[in-house]
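Study this one:
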Amino acid sequence: MMWIVAIAWMYVVVLMAATETSVIAGVMTLLFVGVLPLSLLSYFFGAKGRRARHKERVEKMVRQRKTRQDDV
């Protein structure tokens, strides 16, 4: 669901940037109204998934070390 909102927001921002009076203003609008906020939001909302993946990797490493120690 978040991807649909992000794509729609970028669509709106691209249209806003296209209607600016100069190229510099359009690029600044695209960066500061579109890219920067979306990158921050995707980073913050992705924290839970990153934390879960990190926990899974740590647990996998612990299981591998335990099996190696049991083999010795």
Q: What stands out?
A: The chain has a mean pLDDT of 89.
